[in-house]
Design goal:
The chain is mostly beta strands and about 170 residues long. The protein has one domain. It is built from one helix and 17 strands. It has a 15-stranded parallel sheet that branches. The N and C termini lie far apart (about 55 Å). The N terminus is likely disordered. This is DUF3060 domain-containing protein.
């Protein structure tokens, strides 16, 4: 019997996420447009965009996302040691935690609960607005503007390197 690169439970979760395969027809290869993340995935390469659907819980560890990341309302998303080659957006998520990771594009969080960004490199602007929970920012390298506004609590942060900082994040 051949050994699979994933544990059976992890493979089942990964297979259930590949709901967005489209075929151009005939013998042409399938093209992944996005992958829905459910549960915990470790050491995987997501060939396109990654979506955390409304209310879902997603933990991605030691992995690569070749497209954009989108986190939907009431979702819970944790990314640890993940290379994200596109943009990252979250809207009204319950919580978002990104640690030891890299986001090549913009990172935008609008509404929702709490956000923690730790030991992470973001290649473009970071905008966090309208959170009801805590905003923690530590050891960040940001290739553009860090902007925080309309958050219920003052952001906490240390060791932040950005091109410029504005709003609630101006004095971090």
């Amino acid at each position: 019997m051949n050994k699979l690169p994933f544990a059976p439970a992890q493979l089942a979760r990964l297979c259930s996420t590949l709901l967005a395969l489209t075929c151009a027809g005939g013998a042409q290869a399938a093209q992944v447009t996005h992958t829905n993340c459910i549960g915990t995935l470790t050491r995987v390469v997501i060939p396109g965009d990654l979506w955390v659907t409304p209310g879902a819980t997603c933990t991605l560890v030691h992995s690569t996302v070749k497209g954009d990341v989108r986190v939907a309302a009431q979702a819970q998303a944790t990314f640890k040691n993940v290379q994200m080659n596109g943009e990252f957006s979250a809207e009204n998520a319950r919580f978002v935690k990104v640690t030891g990771s890299a986001v090549r594009g913009r990172l935008d969080v609008s509404g929702g609960g709490s956000v923690t960004l730790n030991d992470t490199r973001i290649g473009a602007d970071v905008a966090v607005r309208g959170l009801s929970g805590q905003l923690g920012l530590t050891r960040l390298s940001i290739g553009g503007l860090l902007s925080c506004s309309e958050n219920a609590h003052s952001p906490a942060g240390t060791w932040i390197k950005a091109q410029a900082q504005s709003g609630q994040c101006k004095d971090l």
